[in-house]
Amino acid sequence: xxKRKPADSTSLLSKNVKIEGEIRGEENxxxxxRFKGAIKLNGDVFVGSSGVVVxxxxxxNVVIQGQVxxxxxxxxxxxxxxxxxxxxxxxxxxIDIREGALFEGRSKMLKSSAAEPAPSTSVNQK
Length: 126
Hints:
By secondary structure, the protein is mainly beta.
């Protein structure tokens, strides 16, 4: 069976466009306009400096230069750049919040897929 990988293409939501709905797929998504809804991709999400996203976001890597209001699950890395603003909870293997960025929420680290499994927390009762 062939393993699927994200497409090499990127969909662009340009600066003067507003969309409401749900985005799903294998591609990367670059937001310079306004998006409201939900994003669930097997690619990467890039929110440019003019981009505003009001949505829960799930992707491999998420880079924020604009604004995101919603929870983010980055299966690999979340990066909030100096102009970026994030309001919501985030979960990622790696979280990079640059000086000048704004983050309001809680963060949770994912274990690396290469990491050893966590010890069992079950207790044997006799």
